[in-house]
Amino acid sequence: MNSIRTFGTDVSAQSRLMQLAVAGLLGLFVVGFVGFSHVEAAHNAGHDYRHSMAFPCH
């Protein structure tokens, strides 16, 4: 069995891949929602956060 030992637990490669996929999809959803949000407060919060992390957005 292909597994990774982390903090005393065995995590299979398939489980690790699923975790990465879910985290990536969640990240894309959050970035997409905030970036194209018509709710001004959400859009401005995302915009300010991108600037605070030195990530160019325009």
Give a structural overview.
Helix content is 62%, strand content 14%. It is α+β, with helices and mostly antiparallel strands and 58 residues long. It has one domain. A two-stranded antiparallel sheet has the order 1-2. Helix 1 crosses helix 2. The protein starts with a strand and ends in a 6-residue tail after the last helix. The mean pLDDT is 78.
Q: Which short descriptors sum up this protein?
A:
single chain, 58 residues, alpha+beta, two-stranded antiparallel sheet, 2 helices, 2 strands, elongated
Helix content: 55-70%
Q: Counting H and I runs of at least 4 residues, what is the number of helices?
A: 2
For the CA atoms, what is the radius of gyration?
17 Å
SSE topology string:
EEHH
Helix/strand-derived category reads alpha+beta
Provide the domain count.
1
State the end-to-end distance. Answer: 47 Å
The side-by-side strand order for the widest beta sheet comes to: 1-2
Overall pLDDT = 78
Give the helices and strands, then pairings.
Layout: E1 3-6, E2 9-12, H1 13-35, H2 40-52
Antiparallel strand pairs: 1-2
Task: Write a compact overview of the structure shown.
The protein is built from two helices and two strands; from the N terminus they run E-E-H-H.
